Amino acid sequence: MSTSRRNQLAGRKTLPKNTRRKKKRGRKMLRIIMIPLMILLLFLLFKSCIQKKNQYADVDATQPEMDVQLLDVNPYSRPGTTIDHVNGIVVHYTANPGSTAQDNRDYFNGLKDSHETSASSNFVIGLEGEIIQCIPTWEMAYASNDRNADTISIECCHPDENGKFTDATYRSLVQLTAWLCAKYDLTADQVIRHYDVTGKICPKYFVEDEDAWVEFRRNVQDALEKQ
């Protein structure tokens, strides 16, 4: 061994045996504590994923409560045109943050006087999950352009600009959509967005978050399977 190496070894301080044992025990205790914590963390993460997946497990395809406030028959929002066959459900958002279902229903009905535009929807779902029916399901609404004649439309209120629905609105949307699918013998694949008809960013959140749209249709299918 070289002189420099001996000098290096000679300069080291040797820890007392008790200190070494304490450090070893400390490391062992840390491992004993960390392993259960990691298991607990993984369990909580798994539980969170399961709960998120099953968040709407209690929603089925029964007819939801709704307030029937049919629009007056008029050329601007309720033409009174009969739908021969329902081939799909179209989901929309109001693009009017903070507005209520009643606000939107009254706006549609007011078009008979204002003649501002032609617009309406069969249903409007509010921020608290309340559902107002504006047009019978066997009549056409002015909502989905080329698909007005063979679809039922649902407008959804939203609290802010990002277009995401409240949980109450979402739950009602899942149940209402599932009920309509069951009523007209449709599948979740026949539920579409306004975007899928015209390319319009509507409903905004479901267009910008494709995974959220896929999850919504999965929730609808799950509700249908509870029949």
From TrEMBL:
Cited Pfam families: Amidase_2
Q: Positions of the region Disordered? A: 1-25
Superkingdom field: Bacteria
| Catalysed reactions listed for this entry | Hydrolyzes the link between N-acetylmuramoyl residues and L-amino acid residues in certain cell-wall glycopeptides
Q: What is its EC number?
A: 3.5.1.28
GO BP annotations, alphabetical order: cell wall organization; peptidoglycan catabolic process; peptidoglycan turnover
User: GO molecular-function annotation terms?
Assistant: N-acetylmuramoyl-L-alanine amidase activity
Asked if the record carries the keyword Cell wall biogenesis/degradation, the reply is yes
Going by the UniProt record, its keywords in alphabetical order are:
Cell wall biogenesis/degradation, Hydrolase
* Signal sequence range: none
Which top EC class is named for this enzyme in its record?
hydrolase
Query: Which InterPro entries does this one have?
Result: Amidase/PGRP_sf, Amidase_domain, NAMLAA_amidase_2
**Is the keyword Coiled coil in the record?**
no
The residues covered by the N-acetylmuramoyl-L-alanine amidase domain are: 76-216
Q: Where is the composition biased (Basic residues)?
A: 14-25
> Which named protein is this?
N-acetylmuramoyl-L-alanine amidase
**Native species:** Mediterraneibacter faecis
